[in-house]
């Protein structure tokens, strides 16, 4: 079964240009499926108008919904006229990320695309609170689309965790590579590169242990990561020239390799957790994201359960 056949595009209400919708159509033309252009809207002033009856308030809200639906239809007119399958849906909701996640859960969307803002070509992408909520809590993949053209020959860079002491990363690494390859094969045979970062020698160890040899330690750690990368790339028939194992913090290594490759998208995994920590991507992933200047695709593990899932009634089918 093909990836991403039921795509939700979060429409930006402040823009007359919709890069996320454009990217969704680009994917749709290559892999098929259907697109939903989705916009949650809310105006507190309508709720505060005590002079109006409940029916009048409902009517006014519906008027706004109809108006915004027509606005989206005009945004998508060229695509609709060309026969692209786009459903337009506007809902009244005061928390956009909850509305989007509820829609994803209820209608089983397998990809969310949303525009990410940036000040100019040289600055990193800026993420809004809604963006962060989606990246942390959305059950399926979230693709943050930069409002710049896809680079010529843009590559996909998959960030993998090669730490041998964290075996729970193995299945997520495999999912990241597998889905990235499937997508790349369907979309212009995009090159897929893998990147892994290994840590610097902890300074306190060198101070506390006089006989400690930092160089030997570094070589041992690098060797472990190279062996793990080789095993992963061979599993997916990826050439050595498409893998990058670098010393340093992931939040520095990954954006640097992305810039070096002129990557179109960086693919990151977000570990599913239970309890309070389920809402968080984890410090490393969040710091990487803050330094990126290209598109970002965040994929959750198969066992991830959205914290918002409790708000949606179970599907009848």
UniProtKB/TrEMBL annotation:
Pfam families with a match to the protein in the record: Usp
Keywords for the protein's UniProt record, in alphabetical order: Cytoplasm
Domain called UspA: residue spans: 4-146, 173-300
Domain of life: Bacteria
Localization annotation: Cytoplasm
GO CC term (a single one): cytoplasm
Function: Required for resistance to DNA-damaging agents.
Family the UniProt entry places it in: Belongs to the universal stress protein A family.
PANTHER family to which the protein is assigned, alphabetical: UNIVERSAL STRESS PROTEIN E (PTHR47892:SF1)
Protein's UniProt name: Universal stress protein E
Species name: Tatumella ptyseos ATCC 33301
